[in-house]
Amino acid sequence: MPIPIVIDDVFKAITRPLSGSDEKLILEAYHFAENAHRGQKRKSGADYIVHCLHVAKTLAEIGMDAKTLVASILHDVPEDTEITLAEIEKKFGDEVAYLIDGITKLGKIKLRGTKEEYYLENLRKMFLAMAKDIRVVIIKLADRLHNMRTLEHLPPDKQERIARETMEVYAPIANRLGIGEIKGELEDLCFKYLEPEHYAETKKIEEMYLREGEKYMQSVIALFRTLLTKEKIQILDISGRTKHLYRLYQKLKRHDMDVSQIYDFIAIRVVVPTIADCYESLGIIHREYRPMVGRIKDYISLPKPNGYQSLHTTVFGPDGRILEIQIRTQKMHDESEYGIAAHWMYTEKARPSWQNLFFRRKTDTVTLPKDLTWVKQLQEWQKEVGRDDREFAEGLKIEFFKNHIFAFTPKGDIIDLPEEATPIDFAYAIHSEIGNRTVGAKADRKMVPLDYQIKNGQVIEIITVKEKKKPSLDWLAFVKTSTAKSRIRQEHRHSEFETGKQ
Ligand code: MN
Predict the structure, then answer these.
(1) Does the domain spanning 7-179 belong to CATH 1.10.3210.10?
(2) Per-residue model confidence as pLDDT tens digits over 12-40
(3) How far apart are CA 110 and CA 100, in angstroms?
(4) Which CATH class is domain 402-501?
(5) Which residue of 50, 157, 205, 476 shows the fewest CB atoms closer than 10 Å?
(6) Half-sphere exposure of residue 252, counting CA atoms within 13 Å on the CB side?
(7) What are the pLDDT digits (tens) for 279-312?
(8) What confidence tens digit (pLDDT) does each residue in 133-182 have?
């Protein structure tokens, strides 16, 4: 039985101080949504509002701001009830309406599964670009998380489709935004539906190992606590960490399912106040327990591309057993769990932490993988944005796709085009035959001229004639893509050759 959830659970999950007016707004949103969805049920049989509350609770846990919580409670209202976005805007203001509008629009994009990595990468980018405000993406991730948690109530074919889409698009986006908490759970849920046998096998290994390893872990934690405290290191938190199941499986697969090869099966996470404390703790631990060669990783000086910071080491621990230790500050910890969302927890600090999320002092020495070049673009404009919170909100609008637009076919497929591209570019991007046979075009169901400049997010329908047609040379004056240009020229050379004109 699912645990019932009430609005109080959302309030309890809020980690940051809330103003009286924010509290009132959240309550109002709750009553409004409860009323609007009344009578509607989820596939599980639960009242629809339960879904909205779960989404809001996840966002409260990762420290999102009040407007985001309000928008998340209301996120399915315009789509699933009689109430319009205009009504919501009147009652809750334009910022909330803007966020909900973004969520509704994102929901309409079909993220179809395909094996092609280039296409998937495009989808992820587009998803981010379409959202404009990063909070929209974060709400969408929390929405998907709850839908994945309740996936058992859907028929198997839908389970598979949604799980695949989540694995290919949503989990990588969560990873990219550095929200490890959501990414890990999404992957584990997908794993269960996509590879049920491997999931069961991995779970069995984990349970066996944990039952046996739990006592050891507790004794190590006690030992470390004494050791570090004796050296005057203040420990904010020390705990044993279990690996997410899907990640564990990936690792096991690389080692022929041999558990003894997994060194970070047991990992101890130590949270200390300062960066100096991190390095000092590492030194103390290495003095007592011999580190394994090649397993010391300084992600504080050299953060991972998504901004992750921590010290990692693997040592021969008590009784000679191998274990991994991760040492970090509270801020690094929050950022690794909540990623870009952690910004809201640190706005009071002199330097907004989000600036450090993608752009850290020493990032220059980190080579970003090729597919992460967009992160660089993100870094560039994040550097420009000042500390002011309003400016920050502005800055969150993702504008790094300045020279790019995304248009859709009537079936929902995405065509990636340069700015000012025309229906002819669109047609050639689909197929050269479609380009050759184009006689007209519609943008969002209205007829437009062939030199029309497509806007981001428009649905473009190309009208063609059946018989083979020669593209017009006039098109060369306005097409933007090199594909269209070369196809048009090629077609003309062909026909000139065929008619022997030369
Ligand atoms: Mn929803």
Answers:
(1) yes
(2) 998 777 889 999 999 999 999 999 999 99
(3) 18
(4) alpha beta
(5) 157
(6) 19
(7) 999 999 999 999 988 889 999 888 776 678 899 9
(8) 778 888 999 999 999 999 999 999 999 989 998 998 888 888 777 777 88
If you measure from the C-alpha of residue 9 to the centroid of ligand 1, how many angstroms do you get, rounded to a whole number?
Answer: 18
Instruction: Give residue limits of the domains in the chain.
Output: 7-179, 196-338, 402-501
User: In 242-386, which residue ranges form alpha helices assigned H by DSSP?
Assistant: 245-254, 275-288, 330-338, 353-358, 373-384
Strand order in the sheet with 297-298: 237-241, 267-272, 322-329, 311-316, 297-298
Whether 479 contacts 491, CB under 8 Å: no
196-338: which CATH architecture?
A: 2-Layer Sandwich (3.30)
The dihedral formed by the CA atoms of 113, 118, 123 and 124, expressed in degrees to the nearest 10? 110
pTM: 0.66
Neighbour count for residue 377 (Cβ, 10 Å): 15
Q: Measured in angstroms, how far is the CA atom of residue 49 from the centroid of ligand 1?
A: 10
Quick check: is 80 catalytic? yes
- Comparing CA positions, the residue from 4, 48, 3, 46 lying closest to residue 30 is 48
Q: 493 Cβ partners below 8 Å, 6+ apart?
A: none
Any catalytic annotation for residue 237? no
Q: Who surrounds ion ligand 1 at CB < 5 A? A: 76, 143
The beta strands (E) that lie in 144-192 are given as none
CB crowding 338-350: b at 16 or more within 10 Å, else e? bbbbbbbbbeeee
Among 108, 110, 173, 99, CA closest to 136: 99
